[in-house]
Amino acid sequence: MRDLREFIQCCEAEGELKRVKAQVDWNLELSHIAKVNEERQGPALLFENVKDYSSPVLTSACTTTNRLALIMGMPKDTSLVEIMREWVKRTRNKIPPKFVDKAPCKQNIDKGDQINLFKFPVPKVYPRDGGRYFGTTAYCVTQSPKSGWVNIGTYRLELLGEKVLGTQFIKGKHADLMLKEYAELKKPMPVAAVVGGDPLFFVLGAARLPAFESELDFAGAIRGYPAEVVKGETVDLPIPAGAEIVVEGEVDPEAMKPEGPFGEYTGYYSGIGTTPRPFINVKCVTYRNDPVYWLTTVGRAVTDTHMTMALSYGATLWQELEAMRIPGIKSVYCPPEGAGRFLAIISVKQMYPGHSAQVGTAAISTEMGAYGLKTVIVVDDDIDAWDLPRVLWALSFRFNPSRAEFLKRGRSTPLDPSLPIEAREITSRIIMDATLPYEWKEKPVPIEMDKEMTNRVQDRWAELGL
Ligand SMILES: Cc1cc2nc3c(=O)[nH]c(=O)nc-3n(C[C@H](O)[C@H](O)[C@H](O)COP(=O)(O)O)c2cc1C
Ligand SMILES: [Mn+2]
Question: Domain 80-294 classified CATH 2.30.110.10?
Fold first, then answer.
């Protein structure tokens, strides 16, 4: 899949998209339609008549596993866990991107006075948001001045002016690491904030992939062919050729402007009022004719953003456990109710004493788990990680609180509402081992039904009047 238009076509062919022709206001109305639609597990929406604008807005692209499967190039009825399993398999062999000369994203090029980000139908999402957020699905392309590593990261971008986007690169995120390198060199950081292109770029921009790895190479791995990229007009960065809108600019590591707040995927605001943060000074904007602007509603679980994160965070945790060569991992599930990141369930076929404990401590030590993962539940392999009723059963009957491990200090996220607003850098964690200890000589005797008798009664079901 090369661009958002191909995805829209694919969704339409599969009955997964509706065009909204009635006029809709970008100010709260559009986002509220999208959110209610997502709560009803509705289709992707293409708003074709946005008040004050002539170009369309896409929402609800990732809300259901059906559409996540389409993004991955898989059949519609694939389960989330099957999609994750495929992700883990395909991302073993990375494929770097390929530069092309001609790119649709260059159909229009605005520089100098022509630049005006209010040209695009950027919605205001929730009433208490600090403003309109150009970046919800937008991803920032940046490059390390030291190693040359190219990163793609999805970070919110607030529309602060015709030529200004506010950023929030949380400490330790890859754009933040790179900005610190530019600060040492006393140079501004070139950046391209991109909307559209292959929808995978957004999913991968939001995925917590390891440092020093390029999301562009992961995109190639998942697709099986290299991502097509083109050089920027004013920045020397690889930009997806099929992108809809590309905002090129620079971030001065020393300059700040008030940014925020924004209704986050935890269902809460992460701070009170505005905070001074670095911003993008826009130097050039390129876009396709009639560009499709793409929004994800973020906000309270479970809707669009949460499904995206459940896929990419769960798959990344699974892959990192595999890379640690821990045997017996049967399945991994990071429920969308926890935005795929605060809670993880892992099913393991135990092979030696302490195996399940190893899985629990490994999970919180992966790159994915070391940041914000608070609760890990480990279950035996007779239970699938996503089978929540069975997981609750194991927590009731196999779990003993004395076998839980508490850790007092771990990296946290400023988004976690369970911590006081002024102290969100460090969190505690718990590993709940809900397996039966491998070393027990005498295990509880499970109740089995008699197979023959079960068959017999099933055969008699109609006769029994049931
Ligand atoms: C809709 C959406 C908005 C996000 N906003 C931010 C943000 O403002 N700041 C941030 O640091 N991470 C944000 N994230 C999470 C990052 O995308 C995620 O941590 C990703 O790993 C960042 O890329 P990196 O690992 O290359 O730094 C957001 C994710 C989504 C899906
Ligand atoms: Mn990254």
Answer: yes
- 3-state secondary structure (DSSP) of residue 203: helix
CA distance 26 to 37: 16
Whether 324-433 and 80-294 are alike in CATH topology: the answer is: no
Q: Which atom of ligand 1 is nearest to the CA of 136?
A: 1
Expressed in angstroms and rounded, the spacing between residue 442 Cα and the centre of ligand 1 is 47
Å from CA of 207 to ligand 2 middle: 8
| Alpha carbon of 213 to ligand 2 centroid (Å) | 7
Which atom of ligand 1 has the smallest separation from the CA of 371?
19
Dist. CA 89 → ligand 1 center (Å): 24
Question: Is the confidence at residue 238, as pLDDT, over 90?
Answer: yes
Pocket of ligand 1 (CB under 6 A): 136, 151, 153-156, 168-170, 173-175, 205-209, 296, 298, 305, 308-309
> Cα 259–120–158 angle (5° rounding)?
10
Confirm if 95 and 217 have CB atoms less than 8 A apart.
Answer: yes
Q: Which ligand is nearest to the CA of 140?
A: 1
Closest Cα to atom 9 of ligand 1 = 155
Residues, the chain, total? Answer: 466
- Tokens representing residue 355 in the block: 């195996």
Give the start-end residues of each E strand in 113-224: 133-135, 139-143, 150-153, 157-161, 164-167, 189-196
Which pLDDT tens digit goes with each residue over 104-122? 999 999 999 999 999 999 9
Domain boundaries, the chain: 80-294, 324-433
Is the CB of residue 33 less than 8 Å from the CB of residue 45? yes
Q: Residue 461 C-alpha to ligand 2 middle, in angstroms?
A: 57
Q: Looking at the domain covering 324-433, what would its CATH class be?
A: alpha beta
- For ligand 1, atom 31, name the residue with the nearest CA: 206
**Do residues 45 and 17 touch, judged by C-beta distance below 8 A?**
yes
pLDDT, tens digit, for every residue of 381-424?
999 999 999 999 999 999 999 999 999 999 999 999 999 999 99
What is the atom index within ligand 1 of the atom nearest the CA of 298? Answer: 1
The alpha carbons of the chain give a radius of gyration, in whole angstroms, of 24
Where are any strands of DSSP class E within 227-354?
Answer: 228-231, 238-240, 243-251, 257-259, 275-277, 279-287, 293-294, 329-333, 343-348
Q: pLDDT value at position 107?
A: 98
Give the residue whose CA is nearest to atom 12 of ligand 1. Answer: 155
